[in-house]
Amino acid sequence: MKLPIRIAAYANGLAQLNDDLDLRLSFQAQFQSVYREYLGLIGVKLHLNRRRGKEFALVPTMGLRFNDFSDAWFPMLEFHHRNQLRVSLSYDVNISDFQLATNQRGGLELGLRYLFKKVCPIPKVKFCPPFI
Fold first, then answer.
1. How far is CA 106 from each of CA 17, 39, 67, 71, rounded to the nearest angstrom?
2. Which residues are CB-neighbours of 127 under 8 A, at least 6 positions away?
3. First to last CA, the chain
4. Of 53, 107, 64, 114, which Cα lies nearest the Cα of 87?
5. Which of 7, 11, 57, 115 is the most buried (most CB within 10 A)?
6. pLDDT at 102 over 70
7. Other CB atoms closer than 10 Å to residue 104's CB: what's the count?
8. In the chain, how many domains are there?
9. Residue 33 pLDDT more than 80?
């Protein structure tokens, strides 16, 4: 079974409001055949520590996921540590009329992202015997 092509696009923005506060805006869109889904986020990034190697920030955010049903809004709180570790906690609040699957109940979500900054190089490997 051949699936239709899925297209995803996103845009993220961060604007400095003052020394300790940034405005965060994000938009995502996905399209597949006749199906569409959009996600918008707005929040602030509060820098609690800016010392190099000890950076720490809290990012309270409000988001809306919408499609043909106006699906859900979600508050989210992210913790950023050293631009390497992000932990997020959010709760979906369903607002759509589509009750068959959700019964208008939301759900708790936990996200974790870690960026590996030091990666061991891949060893060089010969793919052909030396006589070819």
1. 33, 16, 17, 11
2. none
3. 41
4. 114
5. 57
6. no
7. 12
8. 1
9. yes
